[in-house]
Design goal:
single chain; 6-stranded mixed sheet; 9 strands; 3-stranded antiparallel sheet; mainly beta; 1 helix
């Protein structure tokens, strides 16, 4: 039996301006909730933590800074799910090399 795991790519977990490539080399993102392998109830709050970059409100476009977002997913169906957080520039283009984190969890 094949199990489908829907993918939910979180547009851009952290957005960084292109003008600051030296500061993005050490950028990291970590999904701290839900825990990898957890069984959770709806709604599911997805919490991201960014390191290696100064975080500011999304309305601030200053070189070398970025913003991060928390998500609440309330329409997930019961079963396995995967969330992928991707660090991207202000145009939502993923950094190269990729800076990502992934968690898998089950909604009961």
């Amino acid at each position: 039996m094949k199990i489908r795991i829907p993918r939910l790519a979180l547009g851009a977990a952290l957005l960084l301006p292109l003008a600051a490539p030296a500061q993005t080399r050490h950028a990291k993102v970590k999904i701290t909730a839900p825990a990898n392998g957890a069984t959770v109830s709806r709604p599911v709050k997805v919490v991201l933590v960014a390191t290696g970059v100064e975080t500011v409100p999304a309305t601030v476009e200053r070189p070398g800074t970025g913003h991060q977002t928390e998500f609440v997913l309330d329409s997930l169906t019961p079963g396995p799910h995967r969330v992928i957080a991707v660090v991207a520039d202000w145009k939502h283009v993923p950094l190269k090399p990729l800076v990502v984190d992934t968690v898998r969890f089950t909604v009961k």
